[in-house]
Amino acid sequence: MQWTALLATALGAAIGIVSTSIADRARWRRDTSERDREALRTSFSPYVEALKEAYDAITHVSTEVDRPIDERAEVMRMVIGQHGVYAKQHQLELMAPLAVTQLALAAAHKLARGHPRYTSMHLGKAGLPGGTVRAHGCHAGLP
Question: What are the boundaries of each domain within the chain?
Answer without folding.
Answer: 2-112
